[in-house]
Amino acid sequence: MTSYTQTEQTRVRRRLERGSYDRKLVHAIIDEAIVCHVAFVVDGSPRVIPTTILRIEEDVYLHGSPTNRLLNTLAEGAPASIAVTHIDGIVAGRSGFGCSVDYRSVVIFASGEKVEGLEKEPIMDAVIQTVIPGHRVRRPTRQEMEATMILRFPLNEVSAKVRDVGVRDIETDYELDLWAGVIPLKMMAVGVRDDVRLKPGIATPEYASGYRR
Ligand SMILES: Cc1cc2nc3c(=O)[nH]c(=O)nc-3n(C[C@H](O)[C@H](O)[C@H](O)COP(=O)(O)OP(=O)(O)OC[C@H]3O[C@@H](n4cnc5c(N)ncnc54)[C@H](O)[C@@H]3O)c2cc1C
What we know:
This protein is an alpha+beta fold. It is 18% helix and 34% strand. Strands 1, 2, 3, 6, 7, 10 and 11 form a seven-stranded antiparallel sheet that branches. A four-stranded antiparallel sheet has the order 4-5-9-8, sandwiched between helices. The relative contact order is 0.20. It binds flavin-adenine dinucleotide. Residues 9-14, 85, 87, 101, 103, 105-107, 159-161 line the site of flavin-adenine dinucleotide.
């Protein structure tokens, strides 16, 4: 199946031409992200928490300390909504109403389940390799793995939304003597700093000095 099935929850109602259920698009938006925002309810109160996200095939993973309230609430099967957002450009229109942003985003509805035992280590490796491809680390200790909770959320109920149209002013505004346009944005590394306690003789690797996203 090339697309996710639309559900009552994931049916884009506003600006529905910007909505998409295309699997490849959803995957690409999630894979480009380091951070997601997870919404859930604790004791009747809404919470939104930013955290790291990883996708492997048709699941996404969140990880953290077992004392983490977000993970503990979600480990009990509480429903979550997970959002991933990229801002691709600032849209400067000829009116306040015409100012906007070009973006790509994904919204996921899912309940999580705990990942246990030997399955955990490859997922943590994948988190590192997704954020810093090529980075080598020592193996985690058993205590470190026990101090890491990992939750898996299936990608079933999911939607994407994309705005990539730039300026869309009302027709009469195009006659105004005002500048309008798009200021593209992207996330980029702006230099690398070696750790102050780096052992002498260890060179900065190319994957760090040339880091790109
Ligand atoms: C960076 C950014 C900035 C934005 N700024 C504004 C703004 O200033 N004002 C504004 O009104 N809207 C803005 N939006 C769009 C906003 O996310 C909503 O899509 C829009 O407000 C409609 O909300 P709604 O509750 O009516 O959505 P509905 O269309 O009722 O939502 C129904 C379902 O559609 C899906 N859906 C809705 N929005 C998204 C989305 N963004 N990504 C993926 N799936 C989605 C979800 O599954 C949701 O449950 C912005 C989006 C992004 C990513």
